[in-house]
Amino acid sequence: MSRTKNAARRGRGGTSNGKRKRDDADETSSNPNKKVATADEVATREEVTVRAEQTTCDEEIATATPEDLATRFTAAIKKCKGDLSTIELEDQSIPAKAFRNTTDFGETRLVKNITQFLEKHVEGEAEELQTCTNVASPHTLVVSSSAIRTQDVLREIRKYGSEENKVAKLFAKHMKLKAMIKYVGKTKFGIGGGTPSRMKDLIENDALKLDDLKRIVIDASYVDDKQRTIFSDHDVFPQLLSLLNLESIKLRLVAGKTEILVF
User: Fold this and answer.
1) What is the DSSP string of 3-67?
2) Sheet holding 140-143, edge to edge
3) How far apart are CA 112 and CA 38, in angstroms?
4) How far apart are CA 246 and CA 141, in angstroms?
5) Which residue, 231, 240, 251, is CA-closest to 199?
6) Mind listing the pLDDT tens digit of every residue in the chain (263 residues)?
7) Cα separation of 203 and 181, whole Å?
8) Domain with CATH 3.40.50.300 in the chain
9) CA distance 226 to 234
10) What's the DSSP call for residue 233?
11) How far is 42 from 174, CA to CA, in rounded Å?
């Protein structure tokens, strides 16, 4: 193909392989008549990503008591943060009393069993998981290490959602922050699943309310293709640490208003 033809193709917005990347802003400016999906439309789309069924996990999580989990969390802080003073380490650590004892769950902690896990450790079981009282005020947050993993988890727990009570997707690849703040601010959802960084952003922007938050479920038994868990991933663990150490969350953990379940 001649240079003239290539240039003409580029002038029409094409590339040699027919693919072009652009964000929402670029797309709108290049074609002002193009309809941009609303936050509600984006929120109701189904992801079509299909992954192989999970068959392995960190089985030590199943036998970890609250004391063990607090110790593991502190060890992860030391490994991630390096040298900290005793006071700094204590300030960032999570007390054992904040962790619920889930050692009585007999099934393997694979994603296909997460609904059984939740129903066993929620007093109202499925009925409570299907409820929601206030807009932007979930009773349960499920924290995973990535957007892809979150989608795997949400496929299992979406049965608790309805038109009046959504199961919300709280991760960056699903929706831009501004759009998500708007969506969360007008939506009732009892359960939100996502990544720690996006949840932290929503809380700090006063979009995600914590008044009804009873539990934070950490998806910690999942091992990714690099053999990392959320505790050993040096990119994600600091984000989890920042989330749990937000003053609004830490006070609830210490006061016993919110508990941590490690799946």
Assistant:
1) HHHHHHHHHTT--TTS-----HHHHHHH-TTSPPPPHHHHHTPPP----PPP----GGGGG--HH
2) 166-170, 189-194, 140-143, 215-218, 259-262
3) 32
4) 15
5) 240
6) 444 444 444 444 444 344 333 333 333 334 445 454 544 444 444 444 567 899 999 999 999 999 999 999 999 999 999 889 999 999 999 999 999 999 999 999 999 999 999 999 999 999 999 999 999 999 999 999 999 999 999 999 999 999 999 999 999 988 999 999 999 999 999 999 999 999 999 999 999 999 999 999 999 999 999 999 999 999 999 999 999 999 999 999 999 999 999 99
7) 10
8) 57-262
9) 12
10) -
11) 8
Backbone angles phi, psi at 228, to 5 degrees: -110, 145
Burial class (CB in 10 A: 0-12, 13-18, 19+), 110: middle
Q: Tokens in use for 125?
A: 């079981």
- Identify whether the C-beta of residue 240 lies closer than 8 Å to the C-beta of residue 143: yes
Tokens of 109: 């902690």
Measured in residues, the chain has a length of 263
Q: Tens of pLDDT along 84-105?
A: 999 999 999 999 999 999 999 9
User: Do 179 and 43 touch, CB atoms closer than 8 A?
Assistant: no
Angle at 239 between CA 236 and CA 241, to 5 degrees: 110
Report CA Rg, the chain: 21
Q: Give, for 244, the enclosing helix (H) or strand (E).
A: helix 237-244
- According to CATH, the topology of domain 57-262 is Rossmann fold (3.40.50)
